[in-house]
Design goal:
2 copies of one chain form a homodimer. By secondary structure, chain A is of the alpha+beta class. Chain A has one domain (8-102): Winged helix-like DNA-binding domain superfamily/Winged helix DNA-binding domain (Arc Repressor Mutant, subunit A, Orthogonal Bundle). Chain A has helices at residues 8-16, 23-33, 42-54, 78-103, and strands at 21-22, 58-64, 70-76. A 3-stranded antiparallel β-sheet of chain A has the order 1-3-2. In chain A, strand 2 and strand 3 form a beta hairpin. The first copy, chain A, starts with 7 loop residues before the first helix and ends in an 8-residue tail after the last helix. At the A-B interface, helix 1, strand 1, helix 2 and helix 4 of A face helix 1, strand 1, helix 2 and helix 4 of B. The structure holds a DNA duplex.
Chain lengths: 111, 111
DNA sequence: GACTCATACATAAGACACTCATGTATAGCA
DNA sequence: TGCTATACATGAGTGTCTTATGTATGAGTC
């Protein structure tokens, strides 16, 4: 489905809050747990990870996975953990405000 | 606050579902009812209205308001009403999926 | 009469996250 | 040998946004 830009960072951070993971696995996890309603394209995923790393929210190193492949494994930094808390709060605030607008019925015509 | 791109159209459509209104009033209504948590900049507002009009979701005509000013008053078309229903459903589905990802705790490491 | 504020619309420049397409490489399996 | 899944990467293009700037006028204030 079409998505709302700027919302993926929180999902990535949250996913990494459970422990280190590489990009492909993060993408798969988000797809799975959302029932495939949320899919993050590879062209969006890898730049996003670089971006979050550049912000200091993630740290990365190359490792070999259990299946014998090279993978770039990301971990949440302390800054990343703080950012996650902030972003989660912002998201909830946003949804609350959004819902309020959707549910408020005007007494009279809007002008 | 920073916003999530692509989410405003629904708010505009919803606001117009209560009756015709001009851009400035729509913006004010969204700001008000959200407790100023959601503000739509004028540089985003007017292009968005044109966009929705071009899609056939809104119709517009110039009128003079009660306060004696020229204003471009927008109304929801039938297509717009259908679009609103679709967009609302999509938004709810998105938030649900999003919440599911945020709340799902993995049994084991994500890989 | 001059000034300021709120109302009302408009647009251009630039930022930025996305989609889509394409590319590399390799493990595992039939 | 060929196919699928895994794993990363990037470039071109798109579209919505922010920021800044501009026009114009009604209403109230000094």
């Amino acid at each position: 489905m079409h998505l709302f830009k700027g919302t993926f960072d929180v999902l990535i951070l949250k996913t990494l809050s459970w422990g280190p993971a590489h990009g492909y696995a993060i993408s798969r996890w988000i797809g799975q747990t959302s029932g495939d309603d949320l899919t993050i394209e590879e062209g969006a995923l890898y730049p996003a990870l670089r971006r979050l790393e550049a912000k200091g929210w993630l740290s990365a190193k190359w490792k070999t996975t259990e299946t014998g492949r090279d993978a770039r494994v990301y971990s949440l930094t302390d800054d990343g953990r703080r950012a996650l808390r902030r972003e989660l709060a912002a998201w909830e605030k946003y949804v609350t405000a959004f819902t309020r607008v959707l549910q408020t019925k005007p007494q009279e015509a809007i002008s």
